[in-house]
Amino acid sequence: MRPGLRRLLPVAAPGLALMLWALGGAVLFHASLPAGQGAGLVSALGPALQANGAILFGWWLAGAALAGWWAARLHARHVEGPARLADAARLLTDNADAPRLEAASPPALAALADAVNRLADQRQALRTDMARLVAEAQQKVAQERDQLGALMAELRQSVVVCNLDGRILLYNDHARGLFHRVSGGQLAGGAEAIGLGRSIHGVIDRALIEHARETVDRHIARGDTAVSAQFVTTTATGSLLHVVLAPVRSQGGAISGYVLLLDDITQDYAAQSRRDRRLTELTEASRASLANMGAALDMLDYPDLEPAERDGFHAIVRDEVAAMGQRLAAMTADASQEILTRWPLQEMLGDDLLAAAAQHVLAQTGRVAKVESAEEGLWLRLDSFSLIQALGALAGQLKGPQGMPSLTLRLAPAATPGWAHLDLVWPLDPAAPAAGGDTGVQSAARDIAERHGGELWLEQDRPAGLSFFRFLLPTAAAGPEAEALEARPEFYDFDLFAASDSSRSLDDQPLERLSYTVFDTETTGLNPAQGDEIIQIGALRILNGKLLRGERFDQLVDPGREIPPESIPYHGIHPEMVQGQPRIAEVLPAFHAYASDTVLVGHNVAFDMRFLQLKEAATGLRFDQPVLDTLLLASIAQPHEPSHSLEAIAARLGVEITQRHNALSDALVTAEVFLRLLPLLKARGVVTLGQAREAAEHSYYARLRY
Amino acid sequence: MTDRVLIADDEPNIVVSLSFMLKREGYEVLVAPDGTQALAMIRGERPRLVLLDAAMPGMSGFEVCEAVRADPELSGIRILMLTAKGRDTDIARGMGAGADAYVTKPFSTRDLIVRIREMLA
């Protein structure tokens, strides 16, 4: 029934009833009279009714209006009031934090509301207690998970864990960085190539992973102890990834997922082939040179050469000797560079190295070493462990008859760019010249210096009265790339182990088990068909009922047209903010990838979808996944509420709004509203995606709007 | 009649010695500085023997060898590959392409001349 009619009926009903009752009485009275009297009555009353019937009608109308007004009030008090109360009470059953019921006007209802509120209070207290107990129990589990998460984050190797469907349920920062690099840098909007719940097949060919899984299955079937499989794959940007795939097995032995260990071997591989190539070139060039010299020398053995011929053969030998010398020099220069790249050196801040070395020297010699750093923020490329050990051993060697001399550790940039001096300094003692020749300790330390491509020597600074061991060490351009992350991102979701969606169609799946992309757009205006354009897209993903705050999509878009000044108060985006931002043709592919395999959610999403659909022809990207609208879902969950604006729903459901009309913060509010609508929908029998879509299609607002 | 020998090599430093030696041995010497010219001279001059370097600009020695062996009219020509490419795989390729002998650099001129005499006997 339409709401208008529903309102009108209680108002009109009493008047109609009064008329029917009076008519019924008249008909009954008329029927009970003998035939003659009845006819007489009608003939007597007829003219009187015609003349003064208006009085009767007016009387009835007044009565009907009075009764109608009365009935409307009663309806509002006893029907609408209780219905609202029931809605609010239902909200309370699902969400203990929802606002308490307001006291309604009839005292009985007010008492009822009061009783419900008290029950709700009690339940909330009970739930708080329960929640505390559950939280305590969960804390331990969470701690273990966090420890695992922290361990993963610290690993220098890239790790990704997937369930049997290939959906990612854990990855570490290194993996994120690796895919970031090999997928050609940041996509628009901060979207990454991998994310929780996304498919690994998006970045690694499905066939390769399946082949590796078969290999693993074969290993297991044979009862091998080592059951991992490995393969090398190329990425779109031409990088080479070495992948080790190992199964995750529960205690029963059933496989629930796979761990992938990834290595970007592009550089190693390139270096290896470069080395091989250089070796071959050198070998062949040397062979040719030797042959040339050998043949020329053989010719010189002929006794009857003309002087010019003799000179010619001599010139050949000299020429080849010079060429071989040059090749050797080039090879040596390359090789020292090669040592640098081959030994696993890490980047370290010079001051950190000095502090660690001083600590080690103290432990070795019992002597506090003074620390001098000539340049702050000097980064070195080091094998820090071996180097610090070497410094400790060198210091330990300095103990003379007078005990340990005072020590200083000194770091300064060298005159040659790209190098630094690390000195172990002690006062020059003329009586006991420092040990001449390499001791065992010194030659071990020299090996370590050479491993860095550097050197080690003993130097005397007589004017200053100092002796020192000097390490020549390579510097690094800057520290390792700092990762600035606003929030601690969610890198794992173990609930995905249990998820297997391949067997069921999307429509049959429960709403809380699906992955969603909740998004919002800001636009230059309301009419995409008349040239209005998207200027911002903000989105977040929901996975297994959890909002992933770390994997957000937030991108300003250059609309390629002016932004109407009158629209600025609605989105707060000024023309200079979109200058230099990517165009929609670059942003949409990134957003499309970000939203792939998920259900789209938005508030009044038909508006945003119109903008996306109008770009389909230009970009060739179709957003053909299922779409849910929180506006429609709210109207299903709370049909008696007058307003379903995002603010109103958020206020009713206790979602805090920090900043409206910013695409990302609106998407955040929409996502939280959506999560709180899910239990309300469930209470109304809307459980699966199919049911939600069906209900939305038939909702009042949907019919109004489409 | 003197036998004609073609030296196909892009390095003048070896060509000078080889041609001096072969001339003294009484052969008529032709020289080609790259693979393409070598093939043209083989077709035009019909030398009895080719001393063929493997790594040359244009056509490589291997390719020249393959082209000669693919041409039935050139079947009588003997090919000695004289090259710095000394890996087993290189030797296999040279022999597979149809070289009659494969000599890696550096080599002994005395052994080489013996080899050449045998091949032209």
UniProtKB/TrEMBL annotation, chain A:
Single Gene Ontology MF annotation: DNA-directed DNA polymerase activity
Keyword Manganese: no
Tree of life domain: Bacteria
UniProt KW keywords: Coiled coil, Exonuclease, Hydrolase, Nuclease, Nucleotidyltransferase, Plasmid, Transferase
Top-tier EC class: transferase
SUPFAM superfamilies: PYP-like sensor domain (PAS domain), Ribonuclease H-like
Coiled-coil segments: 109-154
UniProt KW Hydrolase keyword: yes
One GO BP: DNA replication
EC code(s) of this entry: 2.7.7.7
Annotated InterPro entries: DnaQ, PAS, PAS-assoc_C, PAS-like_dom_sf, Ribonucl_H, RNaseH-like_sf, RNaseH_sf
Alphabetized Pfam families for the sequence: PAS_9, RNase_T
PAC domain mapped to chain residues: 225-277
Catalysed reaction equations from the record: DNA(n) + a 2'-deoxyribonucleoside 5'-triphosphate = DNA(n+1) + diphosphate
GO CC, one annotated term: cytosol
Function: DNA polymerase III is a complex, multichain enzyme responsible for most of the replicative synthesis in bacteria. The epsilon subunit contain the editing function and is a proofreading 3'-5' exonuclease.
NCBIfam families on file: dnaq (TIGR00573)
Subunit structure, as described in the record: DNA polymerase III contains a core (composed of alpha, epsilon and theta chains) that associates with a tau subunit. This core dimerizes to form the POLIII' complex. PolIII' associates with the gamma complex (composed of gamma, delta, delta', psi and chi chains) and with the beta chain to form the complete DNA polymerase III complex.
Protein name: DNA-directed DNA polymerase
Organism: Paracoccus denitrificans (strain Pd 1222)
From TrEMBL, chain B:
Pfam families linked: Response_reg
Gene3D superfamilies associated with the record: 3.40.50.2300
GO biological process: one example: phosphorelay signal transduction system
Signal peptide: none
PROSITE patterns: RESPONSE_REGULATORY
Residues in Response regulatory domain copies: 4-120
Keyword line: DNA-binding, Phosphoprotein, Plasmid, Transcription, Transcription regulation, Two-component regulatory system
Iron as UniProt keyword: no
4-aspartylphosphate found at: D53
A GO term for molecular function: DNA binding
Record-given protein name: Response regulator receiver protein
